[in-house]
Amino acid sequence: MNMCIPARIAGKLPLLVSSSSSSTRAAGFPRVGIFRNLNQRRRLVSGVAKMMALSSVESCNAEVIELENSLGAIRPAVEDYAEEAVEALRDGKVIALPTDTLYGFACDACSLEAVSRIYEIKGRKHTSPLAICVGDVSDIERFAVTDHLPSGLLDSLLPGPVTVILSRGALSVLEKSLNPGLDSIGVRVPDCNFIRVIARGLGRAIALTSANLSGQPSSVCINDFQNLWQQCAYVYDGGVLPSGRAGSTIVDLTRAGKYRILRPGSAKEETVAILKKHSLAEDEAG
User: Fold this and answer.
1) How many Å apart are CA 99 and CA 206, to the nearest integer?
2) CATH number of 73-282
3) β 162-167/184-188 pair status
4) Between 20 and 30 A from 19 (CA), which of 54, 88, 167, 265?
């Protein structure tokens, strides 16, 4: 078994024996000194080594814990860790996780403290709105007005790399503290099972924004925002995301029969084709 014994200590182990032997011989004791036999000496040396190893292992474990606490806990983005993520969100913490486009910071959209924490982490102005993420397309109507949309439109766009902007409406269960002063909300249902399982488990909307400092390039792997790991309760690693840094396509669907592309993102052509298929016209007035 490899023991985590510091070299500066391991190097002194022979001295513990040799120095004892030298001092006892100088005092006129027999050559064997305080050791009755070689086995007794070996047991003593072994005991010292084991104590040092135990102390060193405890020290190593403490260093690992300290490193984990300072950098944030890194986990694979698999369903086995979804419940852990849900609990973190319920506790008002911020986590980082992959979507179908970019890595994002996420928190409970109903927690004013957690939402404020995301703005603090990103260095973002509170006037810049956050989107929400839900687990399924059928959840959207709890948070935004959808009855003016053609039947099947949302199911054609989502799940996928699209953010739809919709009016909140009077019946929205969203907290008024999220994006105050705005009567619309950006909604995502990513084509990413991990975040959708978390959203279903939370039972509420997840506030979601890109995992980067405001104004900096977006993140397609966790190393892109390594300087921000320590700000998160957990960082879930889904590898390098293949869609590039364009992010989701943002489309305004607040007006009946109209659409307006606010950001081309990674799926503009496909999105526009679906919108036109459902007889929506581009909103020139926007």
Assistant:
1) 12
2) 3.90.870.10
3) antiparallel
4) 54
